[in-house]
């Protein structure tokens, strides 16, 4: 895997741009125009919108701003495909993205090709300021690739016919998840991004943090463990939950991870992009909210790790390893064999941490409109670490900070237990 | 026109079935799979759903119940395409119809063909009870044809690109709407359907009503008159509105008919299936709610007619005349020349009446599940009469009772003023 | 009873004014300042607000407008105690009436005394126009007396301690409700108010209506019959309900009349102003919505009467008879002995009719602000007839039209079955 | 002031219990039964409820659990006056506390006296475990004293008559707020409670934290500075706000601190328990949400301090100093003279920090039902430090962690700016 990461890193910007764009196309390949148009909830966008928005990002911040004679495909599309950049003016309401049957998927794919051609042609003569935006655009599109998969899943999960978009590949699977713990000493550690490679603004500045001795479980919490939690009445005991978590459970009738259902024999099934399948007992649990993760940890007599604990433990591991997204297909968390140490820190499931998403000491957002990227979301959300089976390989870093609201669970989110030692 | 109606009536059931089915297909012809999939609001369904639901109606109540070896296309589709028949079991939530990217438009069209073939094959040997259901199914599909057009309009109106689905046909237009009144004597009149032709259950029983002398305006209220109402502050004066109407105006910021906007020169535009166009001053106003119609009438020193007044006045007019739906295209209300008497009683716009939709004396719903057709909606709605430019020609009758909630206005609804004399 | 009505009618205006004002005071007597301040729902107002609003009505429309040197108690109170008269300017939000801990109950009672003194002093020299407004104000206050009782009940029903405000008086009760029917011929009848006595504007003009032969049940539907309906699964069978009614049942978990609960032995109790008591089987059912009344009638193979049918049947009965409000106390519907004919047409429970509340032919609202009295509510509501145990005796007429939304049931509303014959 | 704190600490438990109970009574003294009953919002409780709930706390956790023959005043009251302890069973819905006109304020005051007598009698013989609960109960009641004042303010602010509950005391006021900054070195500091005095569970364990060099403003942000922010368009510029903050501003039309309004001359007024008064320019701004505090700090080129920064800076200051609650009256933040160093760290306004309310390393909730005290709220809230003008003097500590949701602002919440140095 390390060799693969190496290869990814040494590719030219043009090659990485082209590869990223191709992967997005491949992800959309099995979808009809209608599949790519519908929006299952305000928080999950249509595939077509993702395809167009990531293109708008390159068109706006690179081509419009840095390529002299470039003229936009359609001036009105900026209104449609701006996501949340107030600096770029008014925009179509997020919760009405699913109303855009026009432009069609075909038109959006043409738009992509047009922008790709213009960008590849301009690339050799772009100033550094602009190539940095291309780099940002690639990383931005990789984030949307993960969202494309999770939003697609959310859309198809609404369909009573439970369509399978991809076949499930044959694969060897472990019977049980590794059950050990790994201890870490306390003391001052540095966290946050450093060095010359790409990182999002919120990953810095690198700074020292003080840790207390702790352990992490070798592996994320498994589906088998989650079923134990259910069977033990975990969803019915308020003493395990925060007040807001309990209110959320009550108001929404929550009793299992998202996409789980019982078949007529009461066996747990989960819906995935490969259709309805029995739950893999040894695989990490996915599609649980922070509220659920926190309650599970309390039930287990443990806690969630802080993001600093997680990052310190992951610092020397290969962020390109594990079960991440290499090609279009029916991604899912997988069981892993024990290697004695931490497994699945990268890939499989994002791991909820105990840390609210807040600025690091000395954080300053990037200048200009792209500075709206992360800073304005630093309230009410929790940090997740490590990437998932839907994260494009090469996108991840130990310092990477993902964030979602504590009730959200349509991403591949799971957890790993931590303990004071 | 009367000749045309004659022709419609004398066609065989098979011919009328085939023609109705063909018109639905033609209406959907300009739509992409995505266009046909999206749902703009809980009350407006996707075109694909209309196409499938009208087919499910024939499949269920005729083929399943009356044709021995018929096997359903897909047993799970009944769950998707039942509208509101509690007697037919559980069904997909109405407000989530727009989530059904599968089956595709193509699959739904195949489903239509399959059911049409089976029905036409079975038709010669069906018992009367079943041919009556075919007749009901044709009328049912005609209703959905109108909804297809109005729901499409509602969907495209959400798109900031304001796409035109059909070109506007060339046509001669009058400059002003006829402005006279026609008086009617009071006394006992019979209303309600009678005779051997088809009618919905709610149109009967035919019964006497006592009318007081009244007049009706020759023509429906025009767009020009509506602009006067706007300019006179009609939307800002609570004394013109019912309490519920005023609350609706305030809560929704209502200041013009649905789909109206001002261009940069403050000229009123309206969005239609032919795109954004200047408002036709002489044409009947459309897309106004009962609340608006009632306020306008009060402002004009008049009132809405009761449904009995309307029906008595329309009894001798040709229900197949006027501007109704003959073929797929960009329907819209049109200006009419004065003929001295009432004009546009049929076609152009549904006319709100002062009558709540309630059962006629002696009303009994039809037996069985199809008996859920109308009776269960007899509360909280108002009667509209006369059909619109989107009503398939041949579907209308003087006794026809359409009904909507007083805040709804995505149909082609307008009004005609009445007065005591 | 007729003698009593006679007495009421012959009393002078001043006497009736004083008696009405005294009854309101008596109704509030058992309440603390806090009891009189709280508001259980947007539709039910605090007792203190009723006491002040009815006073504001006299102060505004009589004293301010017709008594030269009258100065208002506090100019700011108009903002607090205007109910819904847009013509009188802005006002405190209806749903925040329960926030007015000041002015206190004592201050409001002082305000009442001040206005009463001024009005009684001015009365002898008031012009007819103003004495008519005093008459209107008396009738207005009587309406609020009923609301005071029903709103009080609604407020105390929120209290888990189930406080009894009044002791229940001893009384003889029948064991069963009369079970016969009374038939009526069809033909042209006149309905609506006529003559010189007071009536609200919506009761006229008097006009002919055409009736078809019908019967009415001798007595309103009893609690015993309603328990049968519950036991027969009436609340769980969608085929008995209108679509809107069924949606209301589902959304609110409706399974019994308002204020009903089962004691530990599953015996039905009802909460009243005399506390929690077993349901009286022979008494008319109360606190049911139009939706419930309509579903019950369908279940019973009957229907609700139209308001014209009801009025024609009631025309010769004594509107001052029956179980109506004579003095402050724990009102409740009572069982009645059969007399061979219709019983309990007046008093006990308001009877839901099949008629939407709409204007009579030729209806014109009164001029000026008081013209907002009834006309602006003529949409979305149903007519109820006959008054209840909470209606002040002397207030009722055969032509009296009360109206509520079909889901509302905090009034003493019941029903009487009608049938075509 | 330090002498005063000394005195408070050396008082016996019985004396402090009695003094705390007396202060609650004094706070309620100017209120009528109705004043004490109404509830302005789900988050703000009636005074009567606070008076009863704090009593229920002693009755339940001390008398019921530790005093043998104690019998509860009314077994049903536990249902009414439990706040959120799931371990104590079902309870009255929080948002319906304003419906409890019974028991009356008088009955609640009797209940208080009864429990006080029983507790003072039992106190000498209570085991340590129980006296610790008395200590907790005193601190619990002090928290509710602050809520009583802020909830009262919230209730009276609903009244268009703007009643003044207390007269404003005469006092000397500064003209401008101190404008300097105080710098602090970084390094490892200990925070969290230590020692033998009382503290809430969430204040521990004491633990080392690593700080970076920083400065704090001498004084909290003043009203004058806030008016500058308003005038500079701070409430209309999305770039100053977090995404959630901006959404909150838009959805609620926020344009000034809570309780602020402009008089006819556009001069800012604020409503307080002493009525409507001009805003004190030199006093700390109060009644701003975290969203507003965060946006203001960004506008000022500064940031909010972390709670560790705040606590390290406050460690050596007198927590009993400053403008805190000594006696019932119209509390309000006050201007302070500069002393060269930090002013107003304790008292005047709670200061929003940049820290989410999360458990300290090694945090364990207390055993038993009282363990629900703080731990279950550790999500979605931000920490505030330092107490306010409504905090009973003697209740505060440098380690004290208050917490509210980022949109809440009915407390006396302000902010102090921090900067990296």
TrEMBL record, chains A, B, C, D:
Keywords: Iron, Oxidoreductase
Pathway as given in its UniProt record: Amino-acid biosynthesis; ergothioneine biosynthesis
Presence of keyword Oxidoreductase: yes
Stretches that traverse the bilayer: none
Alphabetical list of Gene3D superfamilies matching this protein: dinb family like domain, paralog of FGE (formylglycine-generating enzyme)
DinB-like domain mapped to chain residues: 17-147
One record GO biological process: ergothioneine biosynthetic process
Chain ranges of the Sulfatase-modifying factor enzyme-like domain: 184-315, 336-419
Matches recorded under NCBIfam families: egtB_TIGR03440 (TIGR03440)
PANTHER family, per the entry: HERCYNINE OXYGENASE, SULFATASE MODIFYING FACTOR 1, 2
Protein name: Ergothioneine biosynthesis protein EgtB
Organism of origin: Sphingomonas parva
């Amino acid at each position: 895997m390390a060799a693969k990461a190496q290869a990814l890193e040494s590719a030219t910007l043009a090659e990485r741009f082209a590869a990223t764009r191709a992967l997005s196309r491949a992800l959309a390949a099995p979808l009809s125009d209608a599949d790519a148009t519908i929006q299952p909830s305000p928080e999950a966008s249509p595939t077509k919108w993702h395809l167009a928005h990531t293109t708008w990002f390159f068109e706006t911040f690179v081509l419009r701003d840095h390529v002299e004679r470039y003229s936009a495909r359609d001036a009105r599309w900026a209104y449609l495909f701006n996501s949340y950049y107030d600096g770029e003016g008014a925009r179509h309401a997020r919760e009405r993205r699913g109303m855009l049957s026009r432009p069609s998927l075909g038109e959006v794919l043409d738009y992509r090709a047009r922008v790709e051609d213009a960008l590849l042609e301009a690339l050799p003569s772009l100033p550094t300021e602009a190539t940095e935006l291309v780099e940002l655009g690639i990383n931005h599109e990789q984030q949307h690739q993960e969202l494309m998969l999770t939003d697609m899943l959310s859309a198809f999960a609404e369909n009573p016919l439970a369509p399978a978009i991809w076949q499930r590949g044959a694969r060897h699977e472990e019977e049980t998840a590794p059950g050990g713990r790994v201890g870490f000493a306390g003391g001052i550690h540095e966290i946050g991004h450093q060095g010359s490679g790409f990182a999002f603004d919120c990953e810095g500045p690198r700074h020292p943090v003080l840790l207390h001795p702790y352990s992490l479980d070798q592996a994320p919490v498994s589906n088998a463990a989650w079923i134990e939690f259910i069977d033990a009445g975990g969803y019915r005991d308020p003493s395990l939950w925060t007040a807001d978590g309990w209110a959320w459970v009550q108001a929404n009738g929550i009793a299992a991870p998202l996409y789980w259902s019982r078949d007529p024999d009461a066996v747990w099934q989960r819906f995935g992009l490969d259709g309805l399948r029995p739950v893999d007992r040894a695989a990490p649990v996915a599609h649980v909210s922070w509220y659920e993760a926190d309650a599970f940890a309390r039930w287990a007599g443990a806690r969630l790790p802080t993001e600093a604990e997680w990052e310190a433990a992951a610092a020397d591991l290969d962020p390109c390893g594990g079960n991440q997204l290499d090609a279009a297909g029916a991604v899912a968390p997988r069981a892993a064999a024990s290697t004695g140490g931490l497994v699945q820190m990268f890939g499989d499931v994002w791991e909820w941490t105990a840390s609210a998403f807040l600025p690091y000491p000395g954080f300053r957002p990037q200048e200009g409109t792209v500075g709206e990227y992360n800073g304005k979301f630093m309230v009410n959300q929790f940090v997740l670490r490590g990437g998932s089976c839907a994260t494009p390989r090469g996108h991840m870093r130990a310092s990477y900070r993902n964030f979602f609201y504590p009730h959200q669970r349509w991403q591949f989110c799971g957890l790993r237990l931590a303990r004071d030692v």
